[in-house]
Amino acid sequence: MEEVFKLSSLLVAPFWLMMMLLPRWRFTVSVMRSPLVALGPAVLYAALMIPRLLALAPALLRPELPTIAALLGTPEGATLAWAHFLAFDLFVGRWVYLDGRERGVSAWVASPVLFLTLLAGPLGFLLHLAARRLPGRASSERVARDAAVTPKI
User: In whole angstroms, how large is the CA radius of gyration of the chain?
Assistant: First the structure.
């Protein structure tokens, strides 16, 4: 389980690096248009969860702090949670990236927000909601042009 945990981050690293370091590269924009970017960690999560679903169902259906804490305190539970975080944080990061581009948020602002989303998903999401209201965004002409090729989420 330790190797799965260690290697799981490799499933998402290329996407995060593209969004943060190469945000305007056509390939980045093209790849990030697809919600399938989170497929890797989602499949990993499913592969880890499905065989354990019957055993975990009671804890998940009636979550109580001691039970969930005990589950997360195991290598299997921590790896399951990590795969869950990787999938959902990347999906939210993708939305932050696309929404920021659509709204003309500067890459100098968006990249640190994406980094925070990678490290602490909900905090990055909240910071993005604040940052997208900042003045000094790209010209409305560029935003309109980019919006024409960037799907709304």
Answer: 18
